[in-house]
């Protein structure tokens, strides 16, 4: 079968790798100049570090399974633990499920909540769950608004760059929803089996290694190939794209295929499917996106001796605290390979992130300004006074889809609208989870649908 894959993020690459490996003739078309999408590495102070996704969930099989299949060395974060910067101090992160408390004593001891907030949280209100509530509303109804504001918000701010009261519990927190449907979350928490496996996995040298390994698969790649149309031609498809190369734009190019995998974000997918599957396009057009920026900072080791000793892997920041950044990851403390590579250059790396859905105007600032905001918050949070020796600002416009209440049903409607077009499949972050592992899972399912 001749197959065109549109989009060279981890979704498209996974589908192309698998289908090419099965002997199909695969052409992957990527609109930008490089493969990887939201997985990207850049050199900061002499070290290639991730400036997009930096980890994948370890407790589901797709990501680590693919890495093992590709012969990549999976590594896990160190035992350094994350903090919450709230109520004027860095506080330990209590045991939670996406912010919903699982340990009352730990919650109180953490000091994340005010005494009144903690008291309300311990008096969990158990009530039936109706429909598809937002994660924030579900948790606030059980444990009070403060738990949503100070715990759920920073968690979802990191994963979705979203707002807790606008993100579907069914799509983003099915395990939490299942607990809530069975009764008291706090009471069940004590009996939850302890999973000894690390929560996250990464790759020695960064997640960018996954892109490089996938790209070495048995398929043809064109970068600078912005796909414009996917149209039905007889039993198959005609795909056209605008090509750009180092010499500049070239006239539209076209090819035919027996099957097409559309692995682009919701908005371009909606444009590509407008004629082929108009109902799917309409659903995808309604998916909102959040923009964010990741700021990587490298400091001379000699300038930050105290920070170098930290046992924290970084911290999250609830929006209610009114800070500029929403999180900081002390990459040198979280990843052994980042610490070692930095030490060889006499530096340590950390990163901050800014931007939640609806905060686009806050990102309309110069790179220098975003760095300055990061440094101002770091100074207050951890007393970091030194100036960085190198910085990198990566903007991710519309980087993360927002799974609003009703998302699971929306995705079912998209799939129902795509299914009648034989040879057409979709995959990527818009559907069954935004994380790298979930996207890999959606790509593997799409590939299996085409070539069972
Ligand atoms: C800043 C940031 C940090 C993240 N951190 C993590 C993390 O630590 N762990 C985790 O699990 N997840 C993380 N995520 C989420 C995860 O990285 C993404 O959801 C996932 O990588 C998306 O993969 P994808 O293939 O669906 O889409 P993308 O990576 O968006 O790839 C889609 C590709 O399609 C191309 N394209 C678009 N339109 C066209 C067209 N018309 N023609 C041809 N090509 C086109 C784009 O250029 C892009 O390369 C993060 C996301 C962001 C933004």
From TrEMBL:
Recite the lineage of the species: Bacteria, Bacillati, Actinomycetota, Actinomycetes, Propionibacteriales
Q: What is this protein called?
A: Coproporphyrinogen III oxidase
Q: Which family does it belong to?
A: Belongs to the protoporphyrinogen/coproporphyrinogen oxidase family. Coproporphyrinogen III oxidase subfamily.
What are the EC numbers?
Answer: 1.3.3.15
Q: Where is the Amine oxidase domain?
A: 11-450
Name the encoding gene, please: hemG
Look up the record and name the pathway of this protein: Porphyrin-containing compound metabolism; protoheme biosynthesis
The answer, when asked if rRNA processing is one of the entry's keywords, is no
Q: What does this protein do?
A: Involved in coproporphyrin-dependent heme b biosynthesis. Catalyzes the oxidation of coproporphyrinogen III to coproporphyrin III.
**Can you state which reaction this protein catalyses?**
coproporphyrinogen III + 3 O2 = coproporphyrin III + 3 H2O2
Needed co-factor(s): FAD
The organism is: Nocardioides nanhaiensis
